[in-house]
Design goal:
Layout lengths: L6 E10 L2 E11 L4 E5 L6 H8 L7 E6 L2 E2 L7 H5 L1 E4 L11 H10 L6 H11 L1 H5 L10 H15 L3 E5 L7 H12 L7 E6 L11 E6 L2 E3 L4
Parallel strand pairs: 3-8, 3-9, 6-7, 7-8
Antiparallel strand pairs: 1-2, 1-4, 4-5, 9-10
Keywords: Amino-acid transport, ATP-binding, Cell membrane, Membrane, Nucleotide-binding, Transport
Pfam families: ABC_tran
InterPro entries: AAA+_ATPase, ABC_transporter-like_ATP-bd, ABC_transporter-like_CS, BCAA_Transport_ATP-bd_LivF, P-loop_NTPase
């Protein structure tokens, strides 16, 4: 595994409506590494992921992905760089089919091939292929989580950011999500998973970062 970071955040400062949300937060992710971002609700986990994705702008610090200055990059460049994002609220378009939702970020890419990415997603999650024609609004919350993961996988060729993927889902689906994520190990795909506790996936992580009030805390053992 290369020692050169794929994602590096150093001293990130982010404010939301003049309230400090990240306070000098730092984090490093290596190629192919599975990293846990652990913290209670409101600790800054989603803020960090939204900053990486360009939804929020840092007021200070440095944020780089594969050598690119993310703070100075347009939001759409994340997909082109190979970053896939699964927001906690799933963020699906209700009136579109499952397959259309998965392909949304692929369609804006100049390099990704739709069939190739669909084959990859459906190969990992055959149950998603079975509901490809269904509209997203007809799916259960758990099924929507799988589709949101599929959409992130379709465009995330270098890195996945998964915000609370296990939150609010039935134990069987939580187990299934863990299986899919675990299957990505060894594929040189970096994965960052945020969650409020470690009940679901401690065995997945090669490294953990604990965040509290927007700042780094000592890692729990």
């Amino acid at each position: 595994m290369s020692a050169q970071p794929l994602l590096s955040a150093n001293g990130l400062e982010v404010s939301i409506q003049s309230m400090a949300a990240l306070r000098g937060f730092s984090m490093t992710v290596l190629p192919g590494q599975m990293v846990g971002l652990i913290g209670r609700n409101g600790a800054g986990k989603t803020t960090f992921m939204r900053t990486v994705m360009g939804h929020l702008k840092p007021a200070g610090g440095e944020l780089r992905f594969n050598g690119m200055d993310l703070a100075a990059s347009a939001r759409h460049q994340r997909a082109a760089a190979g970053i896939g994002y699964m927001p906690e609220n799933r963020g699906l378009v209700p009136q579109l089919t499952v397959e259309e939702n998965i392909l949304l970020p692929v369609w804006v890419s100049k390099t990704l091939k739709a069939k190739e990415r669909l084959d990859f997603v459906y190969g990992l999650m055959p149950e998603v292929a079975d509901m490809r024609e269904r509209k997203a609004l007809l799916l259960s919350g758990g099924q929507q989580k799988l589709v949101a993961l599929g959409r992130a996988l379709a465009v995330g060729t270098r890195m996945l950011l998964l915000d609370e993927p296990f939150e609010g889902v039935a134990p069987a689906l939580s187990q299934r999500l863990s299986e899919v994520i675990f299957a990505l190990k060894g594929q040189q795909l970096s994965v960052v998973i945020s969650q409020s506790d470690l009940n679901h996936s401690r065995t997945l992580f090669e490294r953990e970062y604990v965040i509290e009030r927007g700042a780094n805390m000592p890692t729990r053992h």
